[in-house]
Amino acid sequence: MQKKRLGRGLDALLPNIGNFDENSIKQIAIEDIDPNKNQPRQTFSEESLNQLADSIKNSGIISPIIVMESGNRYTIVAGERRYRAARIANLDTIPCIIRNMSDSEMLEVALIENIQREDLNPLEQAEAIEKIMKRFEYTQEDIAKKLGKNRSTIANLLRLLNLNNDVKKLIKSNELSFGHARVLAGVDDEALQLSLAKDVINKGLSVRQLEEIASNLKNKEKPVKTLKPIDANLAAFELNIKRVLGVKTKLTGNLNKGRIVLSYNSKEELDNLYYLINKLS
Fold first, then answer.
1. Would you say residue 60 lies in a domain?
2. Do 68 and 146 fall into the same domain?
3. Model confidence, pTM
4. Cα–Cα 20 to 30 A to 112, which of 13, 26, 99, 251?
5. Where residue 141 sits, what CATH number does that domain have?
6. pLDDT in tens, 32-80
7. How many domains is the chain built from?
8. In a domain, 24, yes or no
9. Which residues make Cβ contacts (< 8 Å) with residue 246, sequence separation at least 6?
10. Alpha-carbon distance 263 to 242, whole Å?
């Protein structure tokens, strides 16, 4: 039978599990298995579990769960969603792979497995990533390598943790996409974050539209720089250059150091400027 594969992160954490055959799988009574009390995933969609339970009834459990021995019982390391669905499907036993590991290793595997799930919303991913980084003192680069993601992706996910709490709820309920959430994370004002989030939902704004709105708001917030008035002699000199050369002239600086910028608005002005400068040389 062809060997089965797990995700990249689990392969790295459990090198002996990346490849397994039927001889390493043991059928264990569901009643002898306990969920992991440190399970990072706090919510399980009832609809999703029922769909998986229906699939299990028809096709069985394709991928075994990973457990560790705890006295006469077993604790789930990875695969709690399959375990819950198996209970709904009224299975008596479930295929398992038994591994001995420390509580620290068990937590790391559970976190990695959950982060890699495709149906985990961005905020749940961010919370799990932050938890594993603090628990194991990982850098963003470390966790990026374990998950097979770019460091910038990890950084963008972690920024979501600073969002307005009401905006976080919209992400958890899948009303806001990661793309929208990423843009909102760049808005400092929390009240504005929520206002923009509601606009996304009510007006159906795309990520690109939200980016444009956020960018325009940031530009409005930028303070207008006030230029110091130049010396009266320099101001007169600026006007004289403009009169002689016939082009827009901007002089900044002081008597010791500065800059003169000449701007032309037509080919005729450029030709005339070229003629006058050549005449001086």
1. yes
2. no
3. 0.55
4. 26
5. 1.10.10.2830
6. 999 877 665 666 778 888 999 999 999 999 889 989 888 899 998 888 8
7. 3
8. yes
9. 269, 272, 273, 276
10. 10
Say if residues 67 and 96 touch (Cβ distance below 8 Å). Answer: yes
Tokens at 167, concatenated: 């905006």
Active site residue 118: no
Which residue range forms the structural domain that includes residue 236?
A: 232-280
**223 pLDDT above the threshold of 70:** no
Identify the CATH number of the domain in which residue 79 sits: 3.90.1530.30
Q: Are 13 and 105 found together in one domain?
A: yes
Tokens describing residue 68: 């560790």
Are the C-beta atoms of 74 and 68 separated by less than 8 Å?
yes
Q: Point out the catalytic residue in the list 22, 31, 47, 80.
A: 80
Q: What does each C-alpha distance from 239 to 47, 231, 260, 272, 277 come to in angstroms? A: 76, 13, 12, 18, 17
Hey, what are 147's tokens?
């998950």
Q: List, for residues 238-250, the tens digit of each pLDDT value.
A: 888 888 888 888 8
Q: How far apart are CA 227 and CA 232, in angstroms?
A: 15
Q: Are residues 200 and 270 in the same domain?
A: no
Cα–Cα distance list, 106 to 4, 78, 125, 230 (Å): 21, 8, 18, 69
Residues 248 and 186 in one domain: no
Tokens linked to 113: 């497995």
Say yes or no: 207 and 238 in one domain.
Answer: no
Instruction: Report whether 132 contacts 111 (CB < 8 A).
Output: yes
**12 and 112 housed in the same domain:** yes
CA gap 130, 137 in Å, rounded: 10
Residue 213 falls within a domain, yes or no? yes
Residues 6+ apart with CB under 8 A from 209: none
The interaxial angle of helices 103-115 and 122-136, nearest 10 deg, is 150
